[in-house]
Structures are given as structure tokens and as C-alpha cells.
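Progress against Task 2.4 (sequence-to-structure conversion) is shown through the following example record, which the project officer requested during the mid-term review.
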Amino acid sequence: MLNVIIVDDEKPARDELHYLLSRYSDLTICAECDSGEEAIAQTAQLKPDVVFLDIQMRSLSGIETARIIRKLSQNTLIVFATAYDEYAINAFDVHAIDYLLKPFEEERLDDTISRLKKLTSDEKNRKLHSIDDSLPKLSPRPLHKLVVEKNGHINLIDMSEILYIHVTDGVVHVIALSGMYTYNDTLSSLEEKLKDTPIKRVHRSYLVNLSQVREILPWYKSTYWLKIPLPGKKELGEIPVGKSHLKEIKELLGIK
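C-alpha cells generated for the chain above:
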């Protein structure tokens, strides 16, 4: 939405421009001024996107008014709307965006409005990027605990306690030193959440905490089983390593 101020010391000229600008649904006329002094005061208060400014006015000229407006509100764009084309060079000296001659042509005004929309959109995007670039870049906090469920209760377990995780019939089970829990999401989403931990995918149905592996058992066709503790049991459990994960797991475990 473009917020606009119309400045002209002749009411018929203001009325004509008001009528033409009112055709644009994404443009709001927030003030009309009959002098440069009033335009400066309204700009300081309203900070409009655009000021449509006549050049030949009583007291303060449009060129002088534009210079002051530019100092007050650097992001406000100036469009001169005048019956005199001899001021064009001076107009662009004060960084006017456009120079419209009276009587106004609708097609010419359409071009001006399109240009203004693009310029204000680009400026807003630039500001957003500037703000974003100035913010400190925060790294995600390392995950130390996992939220799980057991018997209808929500529990927090330390990552170091997790032995392995597997999915059965669509339910994700987390096996930890303190027992078995369920996790209310998919195995893939949990794998992504745990990507910076020692808990890695070793099989389509299993994630294993590699720091808990006690033995590596070679198996058929150069595959392996990982032997890890089981909660409340003396014997070690065995987790298969899938072929698609074999190379990565061997590298992580230092197997030649």
C-alpha cells in the first residue's frame, strides 16, 4: 500500500490529481496540502511513501520543499506534478522519481504508479535483508534430552542414556538404560533431530547410539551386527546394519 501526500496551491489541481489517484486500490491519500510549509509539516508527521508536488507555489517553491522533505524523510519519494517542463533538470537535482506534466495523462500516470510500487517494494525488501543481516546468527542449541512417553506420562531422558530406537507397526520405541519409551513422531523426523548426536541410522527400522556399541559382529556377505546393552539384562542385544548404511557406519566406527 502506497501512502501519498498531494501538494498544490490550487484546489482544482489537487482535486484532479486526487480523482486520478483514487482509481488505484493499493494507494491511500493520507493528506492534501496547499503550501510547501504544510507539506513539510505533514511529511514530518506522516512519513509518506510518496509526495506529489507542484513546483510553482506561493512562498516556498516545490524544489525548495523537496530538498527539505528529502532531509526529513529520506525514504519518501518525490514526484513533481506541474504545468511547466522547464524545471525538469532542477527536479532531478533533488532526486525526484518522476516529472508529470499537467494536464495529466492516465497512461502516463499508470507508468509512474507502477514505478513507485516497484521502488517502494525493493526498498522494503532491502530493509528487511538489512535487519536480518544485522541480527546475531544463532546456532541451534544442542539437543541434550529427548521428550518421550511411558504409561501416559511425559518423560525427559538424557541422550547418553539412549541405547537404540526402532519402529514396529508404525510406533517408534526408544530403548534407554532406564527402560522402553515411545516417541510421538516418525523415525525419519527423529533421525533428523538427532543428526548431531552419536545416534545414527543403521537400518531402515533402527537408530543406534554408536557410543553404546560394545561389540561388532561380522555377518553374512560382509554385513555386521552391533551388540549393545539391554535395559535390565546381562546379555547384549544385536542390531543389524543394513547394506545401504554399511559404509557410513563402518567409517564412523573406524572399521577398515
